[in-house]
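=== RUN LOG ===
request id: a7f3
mode: sequence -> structure
chains: 1
length: 341
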Amino acid sequence: MFKYFLIFLSFLSFFLVVGQTPQKTVVAKRGDGIYSLFKKNNINIKYIKEFIALNQKNLRPNNGLFIGQTYILPITEKDTTVIDSITPKIENTSPKLKIKNTLFGNHYSDIIVEDKKLEGAIYYLISGHGGPDPGAIETYNGKLISEDEYAYDVTLRLARKLLSNGAKVYIIIKDLNDGIRDKRILEVDYDEVSYPNNKIPRNQRLRLRQRTQAVNNLYVKHRGAYQRLIVTHVDSRSKGKNIDVFFYHHINSKNGKRLADNIHNSFKQKYAKHQPNRIYSGSVSSRSGLYLIKNTLPAMVYIELGNIKNKKDQKRILNYQNREALANWIHNGLLSDFEGR
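=== RESULT ===
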């Protein structure tokens, strides 16, 4: 008899909890999707089925939202009030999640997820050139150095940092055997592939189209989520031209400009701290004619890390600790952008 009484009591508690929880609604605005709506209202994505069931009559065929339509938000655990609960509090003592990815190389393949600062964020990372095209090249101490190897190394370092904050990361151009390399001279090779594992064409336009389509297909798949594209290059100018890291965005993309500004501000702050007597002259500007800027769907920033032919700029990219710093400073800007969205 006591057993049945407990079962009845648990059902009664459930209805009391739900009965005391007010129904929350929200009006969809331009650009809203289910994912962005959940983020704005701090709702875990696990409740998406409940949301669709509650609002089925007011959703588009692909579960898109109508601007100006009122939608019912699902009741979540944090919305409920438990009456006279005797459930003991369980401390979370589980170890931090560890990710293993051999793409980062033997010494960097293990990644500890330190926190969830970037949970829900999706990043597409493209390092310039790759495959049959090494990009800008130069001879340093009798050895060939190339743009794609150094841009890729910075990209991998950035990817690890994003993953450690709980972000989802797609590395669009990748080398399956290079990994992160703590070396000055990064050997030039031609075996990079494009996401997922496609051979990179020799024709420049086909190369650009291939990586653009990879990003756009993934963007559509994750529509509604916070998505950003980061493209890294190393410029090639006259040997006497020393340039600071600078940033491009699409002229019509407010989110792209904000993204570039946030990373640019990170660099200004770091230069002011570490080199207070030096003027940082890196800039943010629009350059909408570049193929990737013009044709990719996510808000994006196109970063030039330096001039591969200039001796001062070579120090910035050849020293692996400087490449780590570049990744750190970009990462700080990305954190600011996500937190301020």
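=== NOTES ===
The chain has two domains: 2-79, 98-339.
Residues 1-21, 79-93 have pLDDT under 50 and may be disordered.
=== END ===
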